[in-house]
């Protein structure tokens, strides 16, 4: 049997390769509203949202964006209806199982950040399998924030550092940004250059509070299931029109 060829998308002519963000983060908002607008149950919006995420991951890979971090499930999302939460856990598990072979073929390295101990055991098993099998891949770095909360991440980092001080392993004056960053879930990933939020909401919803300090923020009214290559092109074009000074003056 002949292997199915991997189709690559060409970088649009109006985008400069040398000015692409190295790391894009995305808040995938609007699945429920997308479904409601069509008279469908909310779970149908989540299913379509998975397709949008797959499209974005492939687009990042083809255009030369080296890392993508997606906000899949927040610590606050446990407050949603039980039926929806159960469906999301099952959906995560099924997608991981079904997509692993393709991620291997496309050289994707997947990671998960958040309080993974709070997830169902069967989902944690699929997460462990995907992380282990893709850990040697050298392509795009794909990070999924699951049961993640930015405030909780900062608190656990503070607790870990305080324990080290208490044990005499470090001194208070040793604490700086570099040391603090090493205690975050995202220690091996690096900070995003661009945050994209769909559905028009003007907030970051407890996502990567430390890491987004100097990220460019792009908000689109498009609901997540409708976010496609054209929308991503527009986000990257807007990003390349901005001057990133990091608090300095040129």
- Assign the CATH superfamily: Decaprenyl diphosphate synthase-like
Q: Summarize the biggest pleated sheet.
A: 6 strands, parallel
Q: Overall pLDDT, averaged? A: 94
Proportion of residues in extended strands: 5-15%
Pick out the low-confidence regions.
Answer: none
Distance between the termini: 58 Å
Kindly name the structural category.
Answer: alpha/beta
The CATH architecture designation is 3-Layer(aba) Sandwich
CATH class: Alpha Beta
Q: How many domain modules? A: 1
Helix content: 40-55%
Radius of gyration, in Å, reads 19 Å
Give me the side-by-side strand order of the main sheet. Answer: 3-4-2-1-5-6
The overall strand count is 6
User: What is the count of DSSP helices, taking H or I runs of 4+ residues?
Assistant: 7
The run of helices and strands is EHHEHEHEHHEEH
CATH topology: Undecaprenyl pyrophosphate synthetase
Net shape: globular
Structure description:
Helix content is 41%, strand content 14%. The protein has helices at residues 31-37, 42-63, 82-105, 121-134, 150-166, 177-182, 229-240, and strands at 23-27, 67-74, 109-113, 141-148, 194-197, 216-219. A 6-stranded parallel β-sheet has the order 3-4-2-1-5-6, sandwiched between helices. The longest helix is centred in the middle third of the chain and has 24 residues, at 82-105. It is globular and about 60 Å long.
